[in-house]
Amino acid sequence: MDRGRDERGHRLDFDALEPRHMPAGAGLWAATALGTGDVNGDGTVDPSDLRAFAVAFPSRAGSPNFNPAADFNRDGVINAKDARVILRSMAPLTTRRPLNVSLALAPEDRPDFKTSQISGGATMHQDFTIIGHTTPGSLVIEDNHKSRLSGGSSAYKFTGPAHAVDASGNFSIKARNTEGVNNNNFLVLDPFGGRLIIDFPVLWIPYASGRIGR
Ligand SMILES: [Ca+2]
Ligand SMILES: [Ca+2]
Predict the structure, then answer these.
(1) Contact between 82 and 71 (Cβ < 8 Å)
(2) What is the CATH number for 121?
(3) Distance between CA 148 and CA 156 in Å, rounded?
(4) Residue 24 class from Cβ within 10 Å (0-12 exposed, 13-18 middle, 19+ buried)?
């Protein structure tokens, strides 16, 4: 299908579908006209669709988590192109705001003693959880965990998994330590077209992990 036309061949003005240009309630019309964004097929594009989309991201036709309803441009892969479509189709849950992201270790993964300075956090656990807060309705995409700080942000490949930010702005991500300092990089896409790359390095204290026996 021509990306600039709908299924009946009507021309679609993508710029006119940007949320900032739409009157209240137009989100539903935009989603219907595009035939996109409504992953669960209930006629609206809302946080439940974003959650279903995150489950299917990333995937390709044939993989277990592939969901054809989330492959909006029907190219057989669910990737950042589809992410942009659902973020554009879903009516924003808040007024327009700057994209800010805060990240922290889950309380149960923080050590009970003071640790050396690191911009992220320090934990004794190999498997741990990062909790975050940002604009409700955003999508948080993990990098491929092969990035290195020395490569700069251009070396990051944000191939997922992805996480839907809930209506309160909260999200949580399970991660695993594999070395002393572990870089955890995230690409955050908000409903207003904003994007931000954020790094959360975690220092792993493995000797303590073994002693505690988690
Ligand atoms: Ca829906
Ligand atoms: Ca696709």
Answers:
(1) yes
(2) 2.60.40.10
(3) 8
(4) exposed
Structure tokens at 83: 């992410």
Ligand 2 center from residue 206 Cα (angstroms):
40
| C-alpha of residue 183 to centroid of ligand 1, in Å | 35
Beta bridge partners of 174: 129
Domain span at 19: 15-89
For strands 181-182 and 185-189, give the pairing.
unpaired
162 and 138, same structural domain? yes
Q: pTM of the prediction?
A: 0.77
CA distances from residue 161 to 54, 55, 134 in whole angstroms, order as listed: 7, 8, 18
* Type and span of the H or E element at 29: helix 26-34
Q: Do 137 and 197 share a structural domain?
A: yes
- Does residue 189 belong to any structural domain of this protein? yes
What is the chain's mean pLDDT, rounded?
Answer: 82
What is the number of the ligand closest to the CA of 90?
1
Beta bridge partners of 5: 11
Alpha carbon of 68 to ligand 1 centroid (Å): 14
Q: What angle do CA 180, 58, 178 make, to 5 degrees?
A: 10
User: Per-block average pLDDT, block size 10, for the chain (214 residues)?
Assistant: 51 43 47 69 94 96 96 95 94 95 95 74 94 97 69 69 96 93 93 94 75 44
Domain count for the chain: 2
**Contact 120/102 with Cβ under 8 angstroms?**
no
